[in-house]
Design goal:
This protein has 300 residues and is α/β, with parallel strands linked by helices. Helices cover 43% and strands 11% of the residues. It has a 6-stranded mixed β-sheet with strand order 3-2-1-4-6-5, with helices on both faces. Strand 1, helix 2 and strand 2 form a beta-alpha-beta unit. Helix 8 crosses helix 12, helix 10 crosses helix 11 and helix 11 packs across helix 12. The longest helix has 15 residues.
């Protein structure tokens, strides 16, 4: 399942970011706590250059807390500061501002050595891939709705400065991917969290990939959410001789049971795999399947 998505406007957005990064002291990069590796745009490291970076692991409330702790330890061992948060919650604001101030200290010291004694605001470029929660984070920091938000990629259209009260300025940028994903796994993870337009993705294949991941790392998640017993799953598996969708028998059997249990049926009471797939993917994205991470640092 080779997923690639790089609309033309992202090239323009990347060029704008390359220009605007010269105006800031710090780069704040949002990633998804469920898959921090897949949501790292490799271009951002190049664009940031020698500027300090702060990584915000957003949607940590949906991720496996043990995996998130492992990712933070991973970054710490490489000298990178990170904060795990839920962008909708204002509890993280003090920690983010304190970290931004700390990371900007080097620039303030350089200014002093150059004779610039006037206290200037900390300027940070905030960036990330589509649908990562940048606008939600900004609105949370402001305490009001200033940036437009949405549950699909591509809501922020252009760069915009946002001034906060205590000498802190944020430059919001549109979500940007990179021209080609280095692995099939990255594309799948980005599609699962909704950072790739759903219209270009085969939801049935994507659901089968998700079921495969859950079977390995969270074997009870589907059983609990959809009240499936081992005997019921085994019986469904025994009923399959020919496997459509290119699926393995167990994944398809899960979909059969879920489709019937949730009323995702076609005429003749046949399972509607497309509707069922959307339901399962939405349950994952919303956290209804539990706190699930798609990747762990020891795998990377």
């Amino acid at each position: 399942m080779n997923i690639q998505w790089y609309p033309g406007h992202m090239t323009r957005a990347r060029r704008e970011m390359e220009k605007d990064v010269k105006l800031v002291d710090l780069v704040i990069e949002l990633r998804d706590a469920r898959c921090p590796f897949s949501t790292e745009n490799p271009d951002i490291r190049k664009i940031a250059g020698n500027r300090r970076r702060l990584i915000l692991l957003n949607k940590a409330d949906l991720a496996d807390p043990e995996a998130t702790k492992a990712w933070r330890d991973h970054y710490r061992s490489r000298g990178i500061e990170s904060i795990a948060l839920d962008a909708r919650n204002r509890d993280h604001i003090g920690a983010v501002r304190a970290a931004a101030s700390r990371l900007s200290e080097e620039k303030r010291e350089r200014d002093k050595r150059r004779g610039i004694t006037e206290e200037r605001p900390v300027k940070a470029l905030i960036c990330g891939i589509p649908n990562i929660g940048k606008s939600t984070f900004i609105n949370s920091v402001l305490g009001r709705a200033s940036a437009k938000t949405g549950n699909k990629p591509g809501v922020t259209k252009g760069n915009q400065w946002i001034t906060l009260s205590d000498g802190f300025m944020l430059l919001d940028t549109p979500g940007v991917l990179w021209p080609r994903f280095e692995s099939e796994e990255v594309g799948i993870n980005l599609a699962l969290i909704g950072s790739i337009n759903d219209e270009i993705v085969n939801s049935e294949e994507l659901c089968i990939k998700l079921i495969g991941k859950l079977r390995t790392a969270y074997p009870d998640a589907l059983m609990k959410r959809y009240d499936i017993s081992p005997d019921e799953l085994e019986k469904a598996m025994d009923s399959h001789e020919i496997l459509p969708l290119g699926a393995d028998k167990e994944a398809l059997s899960y979909m059969d049971i879920i489709a019937r249990r949730r009323g995702c049926l076609k005429r003749g009471a046949e399972p509607d795999y497309e509707r069922c797939s959307r339901l399962v993917i939405d349950d994952f994205r919303s956290g209804r399947l539990g706190r699930i991470s798609l990747e762990f640092p020891e795998e990377k």
